[in-house]
Amino acid sequence: MYMMAKHLHMTAVGISVLLFVFRFIYGQMNPSFLQQKWVKVVPHIIDTVLLGSAIWLCVILSQYPIVNSWLTAKVIGVIGYILFGLLALKSETPVKKWGGFAGALIVLGVTAKVAITKQVFFL
């Protein structure tokens, strides 16, 4: 069960990040692209699978946010990634869009590092 949950989670992470990058880049070239129905719906489906698999992993491993500091940091990182992603996709100015995009990728990298090392502080 653990390996199935882990692989589902990691696959959902990969698809979610690829969709974010695709939506951002293609949205820069063709802003009306972001208004298509599938572009609005599919990321929510993937992110629901992502959240569900994360909860499933927490239950399997008996590790929970607030109890485990690395998991708390991961949740905070995901929230930061979402906020920067919103800034990247919804802002009006190019500076805010690209700043949000860069911020989302940086926070994503730090969150991935925490997920891999299970350490909140690292160099």
TrEMBL record:
The protein's name: Uncharacterized membrane protein SirB2
Q: Which UniProt keywords apply?
A: Membrane, Transmembrane, Transmembrane helix
The species this protein was found in: Marisediminitalea aggregata
Q: Which InterPro entries match?
A: SirB (IPR007360)
Q: Carries keyword Transmembrane helix? A: yes
UniProt entry tagged with the keyword Membrane: yes
Recorded coiled-coil stretches: none
Q: Which is a Pfam family this sequence falls into?
A: SirB
Query: Might you report a single GO cellular component term?
Result: plasma membrane
The transmembrane residues are: 6-26, 38-64, 70-89, 101-121
Q: Top-down, what is the taxonomic lineage of the species of origin?
A: Bacteria, Pseudomonadati, Pseudomonadota, Gammaproteobacteria, Alteromonadales
Q: Which domain of life is it from?
A: Bacteria
